[in-house]
Input
Amino acid sequence: MEFSMIVLLAILTILVLGSFRTVPQGMVAIITMFGKYRRVMYPGLNFKLPLIESIHKRISVQNRSIELDFQSITFDQANVYFKALLLYAVVDQEEGTIKNVAFKFVDEKSFMQALIRTVEGTVRSFVATKKQSEILSLRREIVQAVKLQLDEQLEEWGYHLIDLQMNDITFDEAIVQSMARVVASNNLKAAAENEGQALLITKTKQAEAEGNSIKIAAIAEREAAQLRGQGVALFREEVAKGMTQAMREMEQANLNASVILFSMWTESVKHFAENGKGNVIFLDGSSQGMMRTLQNLMELNAGLPEEKEK
Output
């Protein structure tokens, strides 16, 4: 009798202890009774009826990720290879959401297969309308198209899409090489255009500088010519004043004005000799030549206006 009581107490103890279950943080448990859904157990210590209720499955409500690697064909029949990262999670911990996650698919493998095929199909349908030259610049548009299509579908399954990253987009080797040649030729073309523009700018600036230099030189030459002309005019004016004054003084002294002219002639000869810089000047140094020079100076003096008036 005592042994039976001990066995009964042991069984009751096992049943009581087995009635308590702990659900880890970030998980929920689906409870069924005789195979039918009954309720959800949330993180922490929970009680379930022994032998009647059972844990059907545990579901993680944390974020999940999966890497995708698939291929698509563009409108112009170019193969495109995608490597993507899909980040998703259960929408919330509401009972209806948890039931969808638990019972929409037979198992996790079936859900993952449906998810992957949905993503691949959406990307392929989008890429099929584009040319291979457009794909690399449409990374964001591809992601947006997948999100738009996938969000609604995942919500029916109890999940929502957090993020989709297109980490790598590649083409066949032949296409990659041809694209590299196109880029290289475009770079060479741009470099040639830039060099041409730089050369044009350089030549233009040089021409402008030369033009400005010529213009400045011309202005300076004009001003110098004006100054030289003014200097010559002033010189002539002063010479005329000096000659007039000298002739008046010679007349007052009853001397011949030819002496002034002869003095000017000799000063000119002296100036030629001092400043000729190697130039050859032929002068008649004979007495006859001197007489002719004096005769010419006297005739010149005789032709002056004041002499005629006298």
About this structure: The two ends are 185 Å apart (CA to CA). Residues 2-60 form one domain. Residues 71 and 81 are 4 Å apart (CA to CA).
